[in-house]
Amino acid sequence: MQVQPPSFADIQAAAERIRGAVIRTPTLKSQTLSALIGAEVWLKFENLQFTAAYKERGALNKLSQLSEDERRRGVIAASAGNHAQAVAYHGKRLGIPVTIVMPTNTPLMKVTQTEEHGARVILTGARFDDAYAHAREMEQAENLVFVHPFDDPQIIAGAGTVAVELLEDAPEIDTLVVPIGGGGLMSGCAIAARSIKPDIRLVGVEAELYPSMKCAIDDCEMAIGGDTLAEGIAVKKPGELTSRILGELLDGIELVAERDIEHAVAVLVSIEKTVVEGAGAAGLAALIANKEKFAGRKIGTVLCGGNIDTHLLANVLVRELVRNGRLARLRIAAPDQPGSLAAITRVFVDAGVNIVEVFHHRIYTHLPAKDTVIEVECEAKDAQAMVVLIKRLESAGFRVDQHRID
């Protein structure tokens, strides 16, 4: 028999079950993003949960319904991220032994955080699929209860409480835009939202490199795989139950490029002063990249997680400065003689652009031996100031090339 999806009554029961143990995160209208997109944009800040992700809702709903025998035996899950921490945290709270199986390349920070919640962590395999297979073997060998990250009615019901709260706080919303990985969050939100507002528009969002749910629903074939900032929704095979639910309830799925995801993460830091991981910013990325599709609507989107490595976040923010034209690396061809560098720096001073670093390249260039390449990393107040700088350098007789990123 097919596993049946949760009902709206199941989601309402989950909301009561987790009340007080999971943060009722704020739903806030963003004036700046609304103006940017040309729509009314409401953000649900699930990145403010204790473990910084919505996953706590489903994990707690599942763990709370275990029998005394199942609690005594303990649970096991396969995850390299937010699901692991959610199960470990609430398992410890409820006195349930927790085992988490993670791939061997899981960042040490995530392993440590999961262990700090009292879980036994097993590292095995190079990919999530390997860790998942090992977890299912341990489930049988040690008589443990498996807690699936998304394809479970109780997990889905817990996730659906996000939409219940969102629509309670902003009942005027007519469009819900939610990231999709395995589909648990959007499945729960879709069931809840359709029950509360039957005519609401439901749009899922996947990373362009991982269109697995779109392919499952639309019966299409697209390449799946690659390095993505949105690793939390980088799922090669979505759930069987979630695919059925979303195939029935969704109005469509948008695919977002890596550049758009990076931009959305940076925008949330600069405008909303909030840190969101790539997966959590995917909904906003879709809104910014497809403004014409959402113009004039009242939109709710879920910032579903905030667990991003600090070094990676720094890279994203610096890359955003480069794309905005405020930060640049210029390759300036000049005669290799006294006074050349002074002449160049004088132009920078006159243009009001700050020099961050300077490098000389005399050997690895295609220039004549009497010339050099002076590579300057610099920062301007805005993109126009950088344009003015380059024009002044060229007017002074220097040839300038600017490094760019897509």
Automatic annotation (TrEMBL):
Keyword hit for Membrane: no
InterPro entries with a match to the protein in the record: ACT-like_dom_sf, ACT_dom, ACT_ThrD-II-like, Ser/Thr_Dehydratase, Thr_deHydtase_catblc, TrpB-like_PALP, TrpB-like_PALP_sf
EC number(s) on file: 4.3.1.19
Record-level GO BP terms: isoleucine biosynthetic process; L-serine catabolic process; L-threonine catabolic process
GO molecular function: L-serine ammonia-lyase activity; threonine deaminase activity
Enzyme class, spelled out: lyase
Domain called ACT: residue spans: 329-406
Keywords: Lyase, Pyridoxal phosphate
NCBIfam families: ilvA_1Cterm (TIGR01127), PRK07334.1 (NF005600)
Family affiliation: Belongs to the serine/threonine dehydratase family.
Protein name (database record): Threonine ammonia-lyase
Organism: Sphingomonas ginkgonis
